[in-house]
């Protein structure tokens, strides 16, 4: 891969005693859609603010195109940000909002107007150009905010939970708008969100943060199927987590003895060795639920507790031996055929390849 | 459910005191003053009449208009100075100070109002007099003495004593309410730190600033103490003119003319200012 667009090297940000970002090392590549995800206070917004120069790192280095950016002032950067609150200027019209950045750069009035109108047109809100932004709807304001940043023709766009104020339908629509824009423009998007569905739907790569640390970096599929540690496994949800002691390894599989029985799990790249405390996860949709004992390497008995109907897919919650909770995701149609009611005893089974071992000590 | 009648009584109960107050202590006296302005004074006694002689005497005289324009000018000047001097302090309190420091500062700015304005004005004598503190200090570096009392300078110092704390408080509260994200958004789009003041902070603070300036103007325009004691009433402002007119020959009707002219001016300025302050931004309908 070519030289990364942005590099974080051992970056730390402290606010008095509070460490918002700890020893962060991360590359952001040109043209990628990177999502930074985590719950509130995990440091994701601070990371974005450091990229925009609104916060200065306490330690470490941030480089953009190789240039050290730690002390470069926000107005000297080319890192427009789409704010969670949108932060449109309420005393200006939609067009004047879009023109603001160009005006600061000293672009002539005619040129400014033309470029602003072009972008408003591209965002399909050109008919509202001369309206005050306060009179626009949520979705329209969103588009003005995007146009205001993109009219600067940046090589990287920063987005701080821009869709969090919109209703569900509009979120899906704006996700489409954003991914299409990112593909068309070919620029880097750094998108901060607490929403897994937004991050997974749009991003090429997802960074999961927890209490100032990076918990995992990977493609949405990697993170979903092979969470690196317990935090990620629990954060992305719908994972069954088992804990036990390792036994022998054979043929790429490691035996793990748990309170629910002995199971085979995929041996990770750096094997933990025998007699170690480990955890492994199995995605809820990779579990099979049957009425009779299946012929499988990994199987467990469980009792059905409840169902959660989402649509064509249901999540079934079950309880196994030693109080182990199970989650199984399956087609609603398939579950209906089994005709189960709460309290029914069933069997669960899964492939050893789908049992993903977590980093030891997590 | 309860009819509109019941709601009317409830609303009226709360409105009645202020309506009565306004009728008895504002509308009534104003009407009376308007009436007086048409009375005539004969042998030092005011008699009821309906003559335009007072209006004619006052509004055709040079000394009235001299005083009128001077008052308008010096009150506007002092309001402008108050707003400019207050701004750096208010800016620092709004954007640099902690919430706690800001609360203390606003509290401390209210303290001057605990003492009588007259007392505060007299204390300037000690400082501004020919042999006062300020001239003594200037004397050390070989300057002065300057005549600071009984001058325009004195009048403006007096006005500022009255209005400056208020200007700082109103500006601080206004700017503290500015959404800091908007300032960061402007910086993010290439706006230099200093430019955010007039690009973002002032447009967002327009209403509060106009109201603050209006207060400074109103207080100075109607003030009697500063021009009388510190300005030496050399060039009489309208309040001093009122006093002189009533003293010389019991000319209450002519004083009423001056007072009415002052009120008309204040109403005009206030309405214009409020209309400006609450003008809707471009592109907003209805």
UniProtKB/TrEMBL annotation, chain A:
UniProt keyword annotations, A-Z: ATP-binding, Nucleotide-binding, Transport
InterPro entries per record: AAA+_ATPase, ABC_SmlMolc_Importer, ABC_transporter-like_ATP-bd, ABC_transporter-like_CS, Mo/tungstate-bd_C_term_dom, P-loop_NTPase, Transp-assoc_OB_typ2
GO CC terms in record: ATP-binding cassette (ABC) transporter complex
Record-annotated ABC transporter domain positions: 6-236
SUPFAM superfamilies: MOP-like (SSF50331), P-loop containing nucleoside triphosphate hydrolases (SSF52540)
Listed GO MF terms: ABC-type transporter activity; ATP binding; ATP hydrolysis activity
Protein family: Belongs to the ABC transporter superfamily.
Entry protein name: ABC transporter ATP-binding protein
Organism expressing this protein natively: Marivita cryptomonadis
From TrEMBL, chain B:
Family: Belongs to the binding-protein-dependent transport system permease family. CysTW subfamily.
Subcellular location: Cell membrane
Keywords: Cell membrane, Membrane, Transmembrane, Transmembrane helix, Transport
Major localization listed first in the record, in broad terms: membrane
Signal peptide from the UniProt entry: none
Source species: Marivita cryptomonadis
PANTHER family named among the record's database cross-references: INNER MEMBRANE ABC TRANSPORTER PERMEASE PROTEIN YDCU-RELATED (PTHR42929:SF1), INNER MEMBRANE ABC TRANSPORTER PERMEASE PROTEIN YDCU-RELATED-RELATED (PTHR42929)
Domain ABC transmembrane type-1: 68-273
This protein's GO CC annotations: plasma membrane
Name of the protein this chain belongs to: ABC transporter permease
InterPro entries attached to this UniProt entry: MetI-like, MetI-like_sf
PROSITE patterns recorded: ABC_TM1
UniProt-listed Gene3D superfamilies: MetI-like
Source organism, top-level taxon: Bacteria
Membrane-traversing stretches: 20-41, 68-94, 106-128, 148-170, 209-230, 255-278
GO biological process: transmembrane transport
Topology with respect to the bilayer: Multi-pass membrane protein
């Amino acid at each position: 891969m070519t030289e990364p667009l942005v590099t974080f090297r051992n970056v730390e940000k402290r606010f008095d005693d509070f460490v918002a970002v700890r020893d962060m090392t991360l590359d952001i590549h040109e043209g990628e859609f990177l999502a930074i995800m985590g719950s509130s206070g995990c440091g994701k917004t601070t990371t974005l603010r450091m990229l925009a120069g609104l916060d200065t790192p306490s330690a470490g280095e941030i480089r953009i195109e190789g240039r050290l950016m730690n002390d470069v002032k926000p107005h000297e950067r080319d890192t427009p940000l789409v704010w969670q609150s949108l932060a449109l200027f309420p005393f200006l019209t939609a067009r004047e909002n879009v023109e603001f950045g160009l005006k600061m750069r000293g672009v002539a009035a005619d040129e400014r107007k033309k470029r602003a109108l072009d972008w408003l047109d591209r965002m399909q809100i050109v008919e509202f150009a001369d309206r005050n932004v306060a009179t626009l709807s949520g979705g329209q304001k969103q588009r003005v905010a995007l146009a205001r940043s993109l009219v600067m023709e940046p090589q990287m766009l920063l987005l701080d939970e821009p869709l969090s104020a919109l209703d569900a339908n509009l979120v899906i629509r704006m996700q489409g708008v954003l991914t299409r824009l990112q593909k068309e423009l070919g620029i880097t998007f750094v998108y901060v969100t607490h929403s897994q569905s937004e991050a997974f739907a749009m991003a090429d790569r997802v960074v999961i943060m927890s209490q100032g640390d990076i918990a995992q970096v990977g493609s949405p599929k990697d993170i979903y199927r092979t969470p690196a540690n317990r935090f990620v496994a629990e954060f992305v949800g719908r994972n069954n987590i088992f804990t036990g002691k390792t036994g022998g390894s054979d043929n790429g599989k490691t035996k793990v003895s748990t309170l629910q029985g002995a199971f085979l799990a995929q041996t990770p790249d750096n094997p933990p060795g025998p007699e170690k405390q480990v955890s492994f996860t199995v995605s809820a949709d990779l579990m099979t639920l049957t009425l009779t004992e299946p012929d499988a390497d990994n199987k467990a008995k469980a009792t059905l507790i409840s169902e959660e109907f989402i649509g064509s897919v249901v999540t079934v919650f079950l309880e196994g031996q030693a109080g182990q909770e199970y989650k199984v995701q399956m087609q609603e149609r398939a579950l209906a055929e089994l005709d189960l009611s709460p309290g029914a005893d069933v069997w669960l089974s899964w492939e050893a390849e789908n049992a993903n071992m977590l980093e030891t000590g997590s | 459910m309860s009819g509109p009648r019941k709601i009317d009584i409830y609303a009226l109960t709360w409105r009645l005191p202020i309506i009565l107050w306004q009728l008895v202590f504002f509308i009534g006296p104003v009407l009376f003053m308007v009436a007086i302005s048409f009375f005539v004074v004969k042998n030092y006694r005011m008699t009821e009449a309906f003559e335009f002689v007072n209006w004619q005497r006052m509004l055709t005289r040079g000394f009235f208009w001299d005083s009128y324009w001077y008052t308008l000018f010096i009150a506007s000047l002092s309001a402008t100075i108050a707003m400019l001097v207050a701004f750096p302090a208010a800016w620092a309190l709004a954007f640099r100070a902690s919430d706690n420091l800001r609360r203390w500062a606003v509290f401390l700015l209210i303290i001057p109002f605990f003492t009588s304005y007259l007392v505060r004005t007299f204390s300037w004598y000690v400082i501004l007099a020919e042999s006062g503190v300020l001239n003594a200090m200037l004397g050390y570096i070989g300057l002065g003495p300057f005549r600071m009392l009984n001058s325009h300078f004195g009048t403006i110092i007096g006005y500022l004593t009255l209005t400056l704390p208020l200007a700082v408080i109103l500006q601080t509260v206004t700017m503290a309410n500015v959404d800091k994200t908007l300032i960061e958004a402007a910086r993010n789009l290439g706006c230099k730190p200093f430019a955010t003041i007039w690009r973002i902070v002032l447009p967002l603070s327009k209403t509060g600033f106009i109201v603050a300036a209006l207060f400074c103007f109103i207080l100075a325009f109607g003030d009697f103490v500063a021009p009388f004691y510190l300005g030496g009433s050399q060039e009489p402002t309208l309040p001093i003119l009122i006093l002189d007119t009533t003293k010389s020959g019991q000319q209450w009707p002519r004083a009423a003319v001056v007072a009415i002219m002052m009120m008309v001016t204040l109403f005009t300025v206030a309405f214009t200012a409020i209309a400006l302050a609450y003008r809707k931004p471009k592109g907003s309908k209805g």
